[in-house]
Design a protein that fits this description.
heterodimer; A: 448 residues; alpha/beta; Rossmann fold; four-stranded parallel sheet; 8 strands; 50% helix; 10% strand; globular; B: 376 residues; binds iron/sulfur cluster
Chain lengths: 448, 376
């Protein structure tokens, strides 16, 4: 559990270090507003964060709260509370973490003292969910609003065509786009009703300009990792996603990602890597084990670096016309779905935005990445309680085997350390590095 | 007649017999067989397009290692079971496949299955998750795309008269099934829950006309059947898919009497007719989307979403509810705590049984069932 030698992560970039000052500033501002009883919305990835900002709404991300509870090693406590309440240990540990939090909050009327944020996630006034990515997310907010807080919920339902339906067929595009547009209109109507504010389209456009600017720096930074040696690893990557969630549409976020880009670019120019000798370049699939982010450093100490992560990856397809910002939100969702079809996405028909979450499995993108990022192997975290993101890993392994790229699927969880054993995982990692070494020397790897 | 509710010969009886039957039917009629999972894509459309709808069932407890090369170990064991059968070519009698986007597992099964084992026809029937006017419109359009694709495959045109006639044929079966269910409201029902499931399972394989004949004969027999004596606690079963009577038999052997259910092959599909509307898609959307009570559809927060279930429990004078959850079944596992508490408040105790789709009557399960039934 918490005594894993991998629990502490070391980051390599100076820019991510700056988050230490930037985020508390932001959280303090949020807290002041919370204390003056402004309503807080709990949200999910899949809710356009620009809308939250346009409504000047206070918000929290229970998913992200789950990652924080996991890294501070307090998630097991909340999860056990939920399990005693009848939630199965098989359910998403972000969800059970929240359910435990809510139960304790309800019992005492205040945030449980174990909460990683001062004041925890506060007392929600509304829930803005999204069926984007997985089904537990539908049940999650439904249960919160049934069991703990009697508050209104709106969940967006971004469906996408399955892998064998052509999204370029104008009738199909219209079928899905109509749903996306009407669903977004429903969401805005809900937000207007429950905030008592009218959406200001011009304000939204300005926010989107800033958020897309920040994200384009992020995208360009990620592309810089094609360089050998790679200038940036996973500990920085997974840390640097936080401003996207909280500071979207802020100049602060633009500055942060620009500085990050500049720092990484400078490292590329000077050929500064993150390890002394880069022996293996890897791609990461799945959610990380938030309670043991040091696993990345452990691998680095063996010469293995990650240069691409499939999860939380914004990809490169959000160039949309911002003159109509609502249509832009619809189009960026749709265009990502279309792009994934072009790559092939047979294991994720409902994901509108697979570039942000999960593997891209059957895609021809794999071959392209292997070449562009000079990859030697893939590591896939099979998270027992999140099937949504780990589903498709076996299929991805099969596809990679076809192009002679070795991969390892190892099992644990994103927030629940009860599924982690240092000794076992180390053995598997070492065995995998040996396999990769063989493959590097031209050996044929096992696969389907 | 293949189906005889007085005979029952073991756990894999139905699935294998059904498959034999469907092979024979295919040879006789020369019609393509379209397998389906979940109850969103209407079998009425398959029938109207000149094909044979076949509800794919698993083989509980079977070795599923054949699925390991394609699917992660953590996932609904029922879905793994079906995929294992598919990759072992045990379902080679299927000409086509329609899988609904019901739960995560099922819709992802679609991609894996059709990628590694393509069929002459396959369609993922996409289903929105909440019942809004725009979601209903999407569902209607999806019905159109499904029908169009299927008709292209079978080459047999449909029209709204043909579809309405087929709906009426299926509605006839719905009303017969309701009549059989209503017999179970009696203090001494003439049939056990396990027998009811056999009757329903026949509906997954028999063509609608033949099923009508079967249901009429069954109803007739049941009305003449001597009633059981003795009092037994009346049980409702709720939860994941149950496509094998073994679980009901376990309850029956322990002294309980299953009088109604809320599972996806059970009453959910039959309790209402498809409304006859000028545009048949209207009625089909209302039945298969708006009214179909699968927990994968978000009907908003609050316990009102369980009212239909409570009402049914009252109608059938249920003493207790037994939940059945297959490993990693998110939609049901998420609802359990809310449902348990709601039923408790209404004076109905609930027991939850977790299973990996083996329906294995282990000592632990037997003891829990026994303790629960004794308590009632
Ligand atoms: S994607 Fe996975 S981690 Fe995220 S909410 Fe769904 S099940 Fe949980
Ligand atoms: S048993 Fe549950 S997880 Fe499995 S297919 Fe049915 S609803 Fe989905």
């Amino acid at each position: 559990m918490s005594n894993s030698e991998m629990s502490r992560a070391i980051r390599h970039l100076e820019t991510t270090g700056k988050m230490k000052e930037m985020l508390p500033r932001f959280f303090m501002r949020m807290m002041e507003r919370k204390f003056s009883n402004e309503p807080v919305a709990w949200c999910m990835v899949g809710v356009p964060p620009e809308l939250l900002k346009a409504f000047d709404l206070l918000f929290e991300w229970p998913e992200n709260f789950g990652t924080m509870c996991a890294s501070r090693q307090v998630a097991p406590h909340f999860i056990e509370v939920a399990e005693n309440d009848g939630y199965s240990p098989e359910l998403c540990s972000y969800v059970t973490n929240t359910m435990g939090y809510c139960k304790l909050f309800k019992e005492t009327g205040e945030a449980p003292e174990e909460s990683p944020l001062p004041g925890g996630m506060g007392n929600p006034a509304m829930l803005l969910g999204s069926g984007f990515v997985c089904e537990p997310r539908w049940k999650w907010f439904q249960s919160i609003a049934t069991r703990f807080f009697d508050i209104p919920v709106y969940s967006t339902d971004p469906l996408a065509p399955p892998w064998d339906i052509d999204p370029h067929d104008p009738r199909i595009a219209d079928h899905y786009l109509t749903l996306l547009r009407e669903d977004l209109a429903g969401q805005i109507e809900f937000m207007e009703k429950h905030t008592g504010k009218k959406l200001d389209i011009n304000h939204l456009r300005e926010i989107m300009k800033l958020s897309h600017e920040a994200l384009s720096y992020w995208r360009d930074t990620l592309a810089l990792r094609k360089a050998v040696p790679t200038p940036m690893g996973s500990t920085d990557y997974f840390h640097a996603i936080i401003p996207q969630m909280y500071l979207v549409g802020d100049q602060d976020a633009v500055d942060f990602y620009r500085e990050m880009y500049e720092e990484v670019k400078d490292r590329v120019d000077r050929q500064v890597g993150i390890v002394e000798e880069e022996k293996y370049r890897l791609i990461w699939f799945g959610l990380p084990p938030w309670f043991n982010m040091g696993v990345f450093n452990y691998l680095e100490s063996l010469g293995a670096v990650f240069v691409y992560e499939s999860t939380y990856n914004v990809g490169d397809y959000f160039e949309v016309d911002l003159s109509d910002p609502l249509e832009a939100i619809v189009q960026r969702t749709w265009q990502r779905a279309v792009k994934m079809h072009e790559y092939g996405a047979e294991t994720m028909p409902e994901l509108c935005n697979p570039a942000v979450f999960g593997g891209f499995s059957g895609s021809s993108l794999l071959g392209q990445l292997v070449e562009e990022y000079t990859l030697n192997g893939a590591m896939m975290h099979l998270t027992r309680s999140c099937r949504a993101v780990s589903f498709g890993e076996v299929h991805t392994r099969n596809r990679l085997a076809k192009i002679n790229v070795p991969s390892l699927i190892f099992e644990s969880d994103m927030a629940d350390p009860r599924h982690w054993s240092d000794a076992q995982i180390k053995t598997r990692l070492h065995a995998f590095l040996e396999r990769m070494e063989k493959a590097k020397q031209g050996g044929k790897i096992d696969g389907l | 007649m293949v189906f005889n509710i007085n005979s029952f010969a073991g756990p894999d009886y139905k699935t294998t017999v059904n498959e034999q039957y469907i092979r024979g039917l295919k040879e006789k009629t020369r019609k393509p067989v379209i397998g389906y999972l979940c109850c969103f894509a209407p079998p009425e459309i398959i029938t109207a397009a000149g094909a044979i709808p076949y509800r794919i069932t698993g083989l509980p407890g079977a070795d599923t290692s054949a699925a390991d090369s394609y699917l992660e170990p953590y996932g609904c064991t029922y879905v793994r079971n079906i995929l294992a059968r598919a990759v072992e070519e045990k379902l080679d009698f299927l000409d086509g496949l329609v899988i609904s986007h019901s739960c995560d597992m099922v819709q992802r099964l679609y991609g894996i299955w059709t990628y590694y084992h393509p069929l002459a026809f396959s369609y993922l029937f996409n289903v929105p998750h909440q019942v809004t006017p725009w979601a209903i419109n999407f569902f209607k359009r999806e019905l159109g795309f499904f029908e169009e694709n299927l008709v292209n495959f079978t080459g047999q045109k449909t029209n709204s008269t043909k579809l309405t006639d087929t709906i009426m044929l299926y509605n006839k079966n719905r009303s017969l099934i309701r009549k059989i269910y209503h017999l179970r409201k009696e203090p001494q029902p003439p049939l056990e829950g396990s027998e009811m499931l056999d009757i329903l399972m026949a509906g997954g394989v028999l063509p609608a006309e033949d099923y009508s004949v079967f249901l009429e004969a069954t109803l007739n027999n049941l009305q003449k059947r001597k009633l059981k004596t003795g009092k037994a606690p009346r049980i409702m079963v709720w939860g994941s898919i149950i496509d094998n009577p073994v679980f009901y038999q376990m309850i029956e052997k322990t002294g309980g009497r299953v009088v109604c259910d809320d599972t996806c092959i059970g009453y959910r599909v039959w309790e209402k007719d498809v409304p006859l509307t000028e545009d048949p898609y209207e009625g089909l959307s209302e039945h298969y989307f708006v009214n179909f009570q699968c927990p994968r559809t978000d009907r908003g927060p609050g316990v009102e979403r369980f009212n239909y279930l409570l009402q049914r429990a009252r109608e059938y004078q249920v003493d207790g509810v037994i939940g059945y959850c297959i490993s990693f079944c998110d939609p049901h596992k998420f609802d359990y705590p809310d449902l348990r508490d709601y039923l408790k408040k209404e004076g109905l105790p609930m027991l939850l049984i977790d299973d990996n789709y083996s329906f294995e009557p282990t000592e632990a399960i037997k003891t829990r069932l026994q303790a629960f039934i004794e308590m009632l």
